């Protein structure tokens, strides 16, 4: 979903590439890099204040926090193992968050031609770091998913050694390979969603990207499946939305094969804001009782090169 930034909603000064919200896999597609305007009250895991006004989480919200913490999605490829989990709100994931900032900044910078690469990357790093900080605080209304990849030989070695060499960021899990963001309701929805505007009270997937070295191995579609699985586990509404730029044919084909349909197409007038036209797409996910029957068996890893 991310071969080049998709819906990057930063600030008016730099939101020329509206795709870090994602569409193609190799680089971000719909990354809404715009800190939410009027940031909603951020609940804290223990029910105490986080930033701004404090709130007490309901029993359901506390249960959802536990669901997020326990969430794991794994897919074994012939070439290795992908493990996807949610980025936590606690300091134990600060190193992972910083690596994620670098991944997203690098993905956005790949398609930028109108500014010095180094200066632009520095600006993106600053904005993305702040954005991730805000989004991590919105759990359980939104989640940032991180995918770790371990080659088949390394995965086997780790199983034999018990993971004793796990030092540093994500080393025991593998190398960070991809990321995506999911909002589950209006509270977790981005403050400045790209056009066509999705309904804020429905789940929305954005900011999907796969690290350059791991592209064209099938990780993208598994990351999409992980997002859908999490929506079901969080008991959110079953209609999921995402954006895809019209020019991003490969991601578009992937979304279509995964069951997403076009809901609306950007007006040609978006060109006036120096943005690429996008499709708003959605998909109806199965009910919880049917979720176990849902799989990616219809995907062909040799055809879909995400």
From TrEMBL:
InterPro entries annotated for this entry?
Acyl_CoA_acyltransferase (IPR016181), GNAT_dom (IPR000182)
Q: Which Pfam families match?
A: Acetyltransf_1
User: Taxonomic lineage per UniProt?
Assistant: Eukaryota, Viridiplantae, Streptophyta, Embryophyta, Tracheophyta
Domain N-acetyltransferase intervals: 126-286
Put simply, this protein is called N-acetyltransferase domain-containing protein
